[in-house]
């Protein structure tokens, strides 16, 4: 099994390119299940989750031709609508095939999902919404078995809470439904916006893109002509993680191939801490701070502060001058990195869903264990400033969502190496 070995203390400098967004690529791959034409995807990140999703499409019978950052998908050879446990257990996003399979083919069986153990992410919102659209759904042998023999019907969906994958699933199901569907309390993340825009480019009538109320008219199970080329948006969480790498080492770095407008809350928090950032249409430069102020943040749905950046900012807080407070409002079990940071000497007090981080603290290299995707990156960030060697184990979590993390950090001057144990 691979692990990362870091020698802390190096100042970073230079520039890197940001990869395509995993969380946008996955629903777009699921969207290809609705295509009449051969679908072409560009700027795919070269990460494990993308490979896993394409394996799922192949298991369904789809023809997939893929290289490192692009793929062509042909659904005409699809011969199954069962997403098996063996694939789905590896990645919660596999639930995204539920809406398109049911919407287009009228039946499917999708294993209940697995993935990062960061707390309950129930699929009941997906199921209730599809039932309201006329589906008959039962849980049988660990599978969501769904049927809609006469197709789905447009209706009004009111989500009890904001759900990104729920919004995406219902958008794709609604594109195949008969009539109008209104989704209220919809997620507004850039990844949801891109899915809406691609649906619109596929001649689906859709309004309210980027708002919490989306109206969409379905085709009554007629397949879509997707755009000739679908280019995945840049990964805002990857960009935020590297900004934190520059911030925790108090370095000047430049990131290219990103969209600064997707990083508003992250940029604002870094500026509050004391960093100067300059940016143009597709790049950001972060400059060292004369002092790093403590901060408060609460995670929230977009455009609020992303839960996927909480762990990275906790690592950064260990180097800020004073007491920082982080409140996790979205997932009840997303502080598993706290104990590992404490192993490195971090002074963190955890009470319920609120962590208080006292800094600045001298971190000491240690053997630490990754528990989920974003916690893994926080431990890498801590290792960049720790005295001595840090070994981050179970980095298969990192490989699910970060393309070439150690190569990019080496390009910035970090002393990091992938090893086997």
Distance between the termini: 6 Å
- What kind of sheet is the major sheet? 4 strands, mixed
The strand count comes to 24
Structural shape: elongated
Mean pLDDT across residues:
93
Enumerate how many helices there are, as a single number.
14
Beta-strand content bin: 25-35%
Q: What is the helix content?
A: 25-40%
Strand order of the largest sheet: 22-23-1-24
Category from helices, strands and their pairing? alpha/beta
For the CA atoms, what is the radius of gyration? Answer: 22 Å
**What are the segments in which pLDDT stays under 50 over at least 5 consecutive residues?**
115-121
Task: Report on this structure.
The protein is of the alpha/beta class and 421 residues long. Helices cover 31% and strands 25% of the residues. Strands 22-23-1-24 form a four-stranded mixed β-sheet, covered by helices on one side. A four-stranded mixed β-sheet has the order 2-15-17-16, covered by helices on one side. Strand 20 and strand 21 form a beta hairpin. The termini are close together.
């Amino acid at each position: 099994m691979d692990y990362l070995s870091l020698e802390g203390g190096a100042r970073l400098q230079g520039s890197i390119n940001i990869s395509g967004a995993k969380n946008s690529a996955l629903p777009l791959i699921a969207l290809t299940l609705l295509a009449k034409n051969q679908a072409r995807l560009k700027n795919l990140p070269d990460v494990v989750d993308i490979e896993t999703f394409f394996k799922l499409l192949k298991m369904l019978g789809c023809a997939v031709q893929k290289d490192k950052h692009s793929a062509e998908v042909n659904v005409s050879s699809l011969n199954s609508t069962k997403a098996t446990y063996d694939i789905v257990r590896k990645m919660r996003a596999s639930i995204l095939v539920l809406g398109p399979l049911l919407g287009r083919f009228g039946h499917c069986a999708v294993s209940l999902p697995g993935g990062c153990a960061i707390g309950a992410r129930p699929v009941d919102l997906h199921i209730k919404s599809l039932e309201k659209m006329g589906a008959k759904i039962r849980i049988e042998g660990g599978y969501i078995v769904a049927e809609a023999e006469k197709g789905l019907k447009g209706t009004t969906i009111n989500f009890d809470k904001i759900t990104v994958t729920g919004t995406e699933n219902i958008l794709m199901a609604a594109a195949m439904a008969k009539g109008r569907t209104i989704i209220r309390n919809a997620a507004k993340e850039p990844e949801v916006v891109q899915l809406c825009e691609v649906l619109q480019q596929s001649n689906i009538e859709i309004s309210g893109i980027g708002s919490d109320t989306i109206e969409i008219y379905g085709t009554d199970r007629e397949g879509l002509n997707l755009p000739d080329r679908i280019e995945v948006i840049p990964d805002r969480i990857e960009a935020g993680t590297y900004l934190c790498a520059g911030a925790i080492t108090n370095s000047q770095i430049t990131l290219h191939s990103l969209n600064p407008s997707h990083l508003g809350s992250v940029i604002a928090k870094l500026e509050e801490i004391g960093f100067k950032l300059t940016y143009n249409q597709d790049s950001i430069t972060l400059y060292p701070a004369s002092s790093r102020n403590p901060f408060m943040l609460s995670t929230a749905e977009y455009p609020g502060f992303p839960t996927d950046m909480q762990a990275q900012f906790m690592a950064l807080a260990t180097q800020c001058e004073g007491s920082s407070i982080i409140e996790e409002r979205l997932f009840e079990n997303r502080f598993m990195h706290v104990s590992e940071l404490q192993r490195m000497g971090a002074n963190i007090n955890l009470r319920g869903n609120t962590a208080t981080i006292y800094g600045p603290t001298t971190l000491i290299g240690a053997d630490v264990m990754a528990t989920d995707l974003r916690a893994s990156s926080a431990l890498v960030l801590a290792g960049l400033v720790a005295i001595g060697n840090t070994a981050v184990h179970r980095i298969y979590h990192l490989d699910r969502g970060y393309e070439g993390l150690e190569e990019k950090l080496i390009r910035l001057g970090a002393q990091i190496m992938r090893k086997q144990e």
